[in-house]
Amino acid sequence: MTHVPVMLEEVLRFLEPKDRGLYLDGTVGLGGHAEAILSASRPQGRLLGIDRDPRNLEFAQARLKPFGDMVMLARGSYAQARQLAEKNKLVGFNGILLDLGFSSAHISDASRGFAFSQLGPLDMRYDQEQELSAAVIINGWPKDDLAEIFRQYGEEPRAAYLADVIIEARRKERILTTSALADLIAGAVGRRGPTHPATKVFQALRIAVNDELGELTRALPELVSLLAPGGTLAIISFQSLEDRIVKQFFKQQEGQTLEILTKKVMVPTDAECEANPRARSAKLRVARRLDSDYDGRRDEQLFTDQVLPRGVDPVTPRRV
User: Fold this and answer.
1) Domain 8-104+212-307 in CATH: superfamily?
2) Does the model's pTM come out above 0.85?
């Protein structure tokens, strides 16, 4: 499977992988960034790669096999990084990376239900052992909750109207496929311009199913606490809600526990966007941990309360 890691040159420039360095890739995906970090930290660098999707871990394991004991892979969320690091007896990371874009494997596999361009089940789960799926939300959540996630997570201005449309349609027949939902939305609002009218609803569903904003807000203080003094935290985001959370957290910690290395958010070069269209919406923010005593658990709830969209529970309710 072809996989091109986004903003790889910039990530390597900031992380500066070196021999005997310790690194964490909290969204290892298909292993592209991890492979480059491990190559640059030979022969005795080490990397812990985390992913919620066991299929991604299978791809990453095969790709990173040549590095042998340099790499450790763990199934879970980057929000569980402290627990997974302690389990593997790892402390004081020199660099931590999060690539918050969902994997190209998710897009290309119609059975995962992430893309409205392909017929597939309305799923969108990174971890397919969890109960909550996009179909559960669309067919079971009340109108007000649907409108709320469309508005907050998708920034969809027609949130209330689309929630009404979905409620009315599901009274007649359950909405179970990506195409059924996309066609319903397109039929309700029409199509104008190159962007499909279901784009924001699909984004909102993916975020809600996987609790993406809650994961990020809970993880940021923990990740900083895992860094060694002078260690670097690099985060690539692909939509404004995630980038805003990262920006606010870095600003909150600036001068106390972090030095911001990207005073202005970095974006891919024109050449990279042309070669890899997936990179077009990427934004990179990087900060370095100062030599300070910091326990992320003290700030976790405070930060969560400050930055999550108002009225949205950071832990998505599991309605069934």
Assistant:
1) Vaccinia Virus protein VP39 (3.40.50.150)
2) yes
